[in-house]
Automatic annotation (TrEMBL):
This is Sec23/sec24 transport family protein. SUPFAM superfamilies: beta-sandwich domain of Sec23/24, Helical domain of Sec23/24, vWA-like, Zn-finger domain of Sec23/24. InterPro entries: Sec23/24_helical_dom (IPR006900), Sec23/24_helical_dom_sf (IPR036175), Sec23/24_trunk_dom (IPR006896), SEC23_SEC24_subfamily (IPR050550), vWFA_dom_sf (IPR036465), Znf_Sec23_Sec24 (IPR006895), Znf_Sec23_Sec24_sf (IPR036174). Signal peptide: none annotated. Residues 51-84 form the Zinc finger Sec23/Sec24-type domain. Residues 121-373 form the Sec23/Sec24 trunk domain. It comes from the Eukaryota. GO terms for biological process: protein transport. Residues 499-611 form the Sec23/Sec24 helical domain.
Length: 745
């Protein structure tokens, strides 16, 4: 559980918070195996015996004052009595996790019988779009063959297809058999036949260890639906015009109901991989993609605002059905046509899954992403609760979860991997703030309750009854992190404790929210205004602007680079980069709305360092493939030219580029050899990613260097089409300086 705060020393009251101009909050990666300093939790059992405060329900922790019979809550100060079993347990504190560490992970007893506990076979279903191309199906087959290698023994796998009909594959016999159910073409009708009646679910779900070859054989039989098949099965519109044939919505709804019958019996969580090659245009949940081609300018409509909201609540409602059926959906869209991910995204993010977008089949990393996703541990049926000491409270929460309808600051997460990150911002409960001389510093406690499937090798045989050996087992656990912060006595202490990457994370969450509600222009305006106010507050705090005859002598004196505070120095560059990012660039600059939605979903779950890389890529240089020259350059042509280095490595999170300058010595090996330092760095970067970055090698003067040069943003105009100019970042700082001068008048 990694936790990082925007400031490690909290503002002492609401006046200090406002004067700082900074967001106050934190980011949280609950299922990370270690904390932000690389320290693992103290593990134990009997989590249900952990004492809780009678007033605020916080858990007992190392910051609580403990005497023989009672303990004081470190969050609210309440005196609580200790039950007799806790008194006996705490008489030997060295063996008790909550007495030795403020970061603990304890096992909880499971509800239900021991037999139910062992019925935990992981279930995976692939749903493949046949209204597609041969290239799409070849890529999908490669991805699923990679997935089969990553699945643990004991898993069940189902293969389904969709077009104008749903195909269910039985691979448990000697020859794969497919049963088809035709989809009604209109948007209201449901299937004429339940999938269970077409093929019993346990006939559809095949054990991976015994059927892997037959699953692979079934994949080889997949072919795209021909135009003849589609015209005979799909709806004919006026004058015989074909009305589509991708019945994605109906297929997903039917699959969830199909799987839901065995939820809690055969499986505790089913994962559906939906492979999509274009927009749903048939049956329930069909989408109107003509809105992308509309001329918004002539209607005086903001295209960015018009294309970001969903056009139907169908997929949001469908996500609710998925959750009730115990299903988590990962959507893999392989398409360069408008697919309206603004509507489809809810199916994945609200069911605990991921959304992937690949613009073509040629260089897609889909197989690697599938293998990577299934190879990392995940928790499910998670509940996340943040508590704070009484002086302050969580104000907003950000991330792919859904809030509890009854309890405040309680979030449910259907499926959570070790990368998934969430964010919170804080506010004071009243005007008092933290006491300057109090013995009770600010405290944050995060409780994360979750379930994991433990494979048979994860438990010793003595832990299981003989009838259960060889089966997967469910384990319910609670992970608790209690953190004590200090309150800053002045604004210098706040500024000196800033973590600029966490500040960026909260800004990204807020501008995404504003963009979705009010459009991209409003998101850009919010970001610009925030930097102006921060710069003004900083200049005021350090008395950098002098008064002459009662008036402030302005812009020539304004420090727009935060030269007095190294922790704030990166922020103008990060804001400029965020304004140049496709997340906030205008529709008329050629930013595809589906790509913007994909970035919103990706950036909403990245931990701060990864997000920093996605917004402002890191650029390092090498004098040879085995020798690092400079670890960090600014993203400008000038930096490249003045460095004199022949080799550059750019990491933009989703893309990695090795660039050899046109002046590089011809004796330098290209591409870099596999055993060199540069390759080792690339491999380490790739291993630490939640997705597989695309790797490119470019030789300056010989290859097209556009892909690399597009990342050199500092000479690009912040509001223009990104063409190199003498303006760029310098001009942006001038604009901020003038705006600060206006603000401070």
């Amino acid at each position: 559980m990694a936790v990082r705060a925007t400031v490690s020393r909290f503002p002492i009251d609401s006046d200090a918070l406002e004067a700082s101009g900074l967001p106050w909050g934190l980011t949280l990666t609950p299922f990370a195996a270690k904390d932000e300093n690389g320290i693992a939790p103290a593990y134990g059992s009997n989590g249900h015996l952990l004492p809780r405060c009678e007033n605020c329900y916080a858990y007992f922790n190392t910051y609580c004052e403990l005497d023989q019979w009672a303990w004081n809550c470190s969050l609210c100060g309440t005196l609580n009595g200790l039950p007799s079993d806790a008194i006996a347990r705490y008489s030997n504190p060295h063996s008790i996790p909550e007495m030795s560490s403020s970061f603990i992970d304890l096992e909880l007893p499971l509800d239900g019988s021991e037999e139910e506990m062992t019925q935990a076979r992981p279930v995976y279903v692939a749903a493949i779009d046949l209204s597609s191309s041969e290239e799409f199906l070849e890529l999908t087959k490669s991805a699923l063959l990679a997935a089969l290698e990553a699945l643990s023994p004991g898993s069940l796998f189902g293969l389904a297809t969709f077009s104008h009909k749903i195909g269910l594959y039985d691979v448990q016999g000697p020859v794969p058999v497919v049963k088809n159910v035709f989809i009604p073409p209109d948007a209201e009708s449901k299937l004429p036949l339940e999938l269970e009646d077409a093929m019993p679910l346990l006939q559809f779900l095949a054990p991976v260890e015994t059927c892997k070859d037959r699953i692979a054989a079934a994949l080889e039989t997949l072919r795209p639906i021909t135009s003849w098949e589609r015209s005979s099965g799909a709806a004919q519109g006026m004058d015989g015009v074909l009305m589509g044939g991708r019945g994605f919505g109906t297929a997903m709804e039917a699959l969830f109901n199909y799987l839901g019958s065995e939820f809690g019996n055969t499986f505790a969580l089913a994962r559906v991989f939906a492979f999509l090659s274009g927009p749903p245009d048939y049956g329930r949940g069909q989408l109107d993609t003509t809105r992308y081609g509309e001329q918004y300018a002539s209607k005086r409509v903001d295209a960015d605002r018009a294309l970001l909201p969903e056009q139907t609540p169908f997929y949001k409602d469908l996500a609710t059905i998925a959750v009730q059926s115990g299903v988590c959906v990962d959507v893999f869209a392989v398409t360069n046509e408008y697919t309206d991910l603004a509507s489809l995204k809810f199916l994945s993010i609200e069911s605990g899954g991921s959304l992937f977008l690949y613009s073509s089949t040629d260089d897609s990393t889909l197989p690697q992403d599938m293998f990577r996703m299934l190879n990392r541990p995940y928790a499910f049926n998670c509940v996340l609760r943040m508590r704070t000491s009484t002086e302050f409270k969580p104000l907003h929460s950000f991330g792919h979860f859904f809030p509890d309808p009854q309890y405040e600051n309680l979030q449910h997460i259907i499926c959570c991997d070790s990368y998934a990150t969430y964010a919170y911002d804080f506010d004071f409960t009243d005007n008092t703030g933290f006491s300057r001389h109090s013995g009770y510093p600010p405290v944050v406690q995060i409780a994360f309750q979750y379930t994991v499937v433990v494979p048979p090798e994860g438990l010793s045989n003595s832990e299981l009854p003989s009838s259960s050996r060889g089966k997967h087992t469910l384990q319910r656990r609670i992970r608790i992190r209690t953190m004590q912060f200090s309150a800053a006595q002045n604004i210098n202490e706040i500024y000196d404790s800033v973590d600029h990457e966490v500040v960026l994370s909260l800004l990204v969450h807020k501008v995404i929210l504003v963009s979705l509600e009010d459009g991209v222009r409003e998101g850009r305006a919010l970001l610009h205004d925030w930097l102006v106010i921060l710069t003004a507050q900083y200049n005021d705090a350090f008395n950098l602007v002098q008064y002459k005859n009662g008036n402030k002598s302005m812009s020539s004196q304004i420090d727009i680079t935060f030269s007095q505070c190294p922790q704030l120095e990166p922020l103008p560059r990060l804001v400029f980069a965020l304004l140049r990012n496709p997340l906030l660039r205008f529709h008329e600059e050629g930013v595809h709305p589906d790509y913007r939605i994909y970035l919103q979903c990706l950036f909403s779950v990245l931990e701060p360092s990864s997000l920093h890389c996605g917004i402002y890529p890191s650029l390092m240089s090498y004098s040879t493939p085995d020798k690092l020259a400079y670890p960090r350059h600014s993203l400008s042509r000038a930096a490249l030219m003045t460095s004199g280095s022949p080799i550059f490595f750019l990491d933009a999170y989703t893309t990695l580029i090795v660039f050899y300058s046109s002046t590089a010595d011809s004796s330098l090996p290209f591409p870099p050899p596999q055993d060199c330092l540069l390759r080792k760095t690339i491999n380490e970067v790739k291993q630490g990613r939640s997705i597989t970055p695309k790797l490119m090698f470019i030789r300056g003067g010989q290859d097209d260097a556009t892909a690399f040069e597009n990342y050199l943003i500092e000479e690009q105009d912040v509001d223009g089409a990104g063409f190199a100019s003498a303006r760029g970042f310098v001009s942006f700082l001038d604009d901020i300086s003038q705006s600060v001068a206006e603000y401070m008048k």
